[in-house]
Amino acid sequence: MKALLVYYSLTGSVKEIVKTVQKNSGLPARELIDTKRRDNVLGAGFAAFFGISTKLKDPNYDVSKYDTLILLTPIWAGCPTPAMNTFIRRADLRGKKIFLVGVGAAPNNKRAIEKFRRIVRKFGGRIIGTRTYRGINPMRKKFQQRWKDLEEAGHELTRIFMEND
Predict the structure, then answer these.
(1) What are the residue boundaries of the Flavodoxin-like domain, all occurrences included (predicted)?
(2) Where in the sequence is the domain holding 100, given as residue range(s)?
(3) Which of the two ends of the chain, N or C, has the fewest CB atoms closer than 10 A to its terminal CB?
(4) CATH code for the domain of 39
(5) Computed over its alpha carbons, how large is the radius of gyration of the chain?
(6) β-pairing, 79-80 with 68-76?
């Protein structure tokens, strides 16, 4: 399996998972960097809910040398982020195996992952698996335990990807 981790992380939750997967698997990663500041939670959720794209800093949409993409994104208002929407629309996903990871305020985001799945299928990706995890909510405490949970999520994903290799 020639795989690439593609991710967006605002609060660091997704980045923590990616860091653990990379450490354990050696898979390359591509970070999506939104040029728009996302300080306004309401505005960010609105953009995600309506499937709005955004401009990315130094985007690289070329995925031609990979057969599998692992797309990791926060879940905002029950939807993937604008940065991930942009990547999905611009990268050529046709025929690619896609594993989706959503990280949100709730531990299980079934409706959100289903929306994510529909978007990726619309652009030609073939879903091979999904996972959802609970991320860091900057408005709440208990960061220590949550970071440990995110690291464990990275270990779980590594096991999944290595089994399918």
Answers:
(1) 3-158
(2) 3-163
(3) C
(4) 3.40.50.360
(5) 15
(6) antiparallel
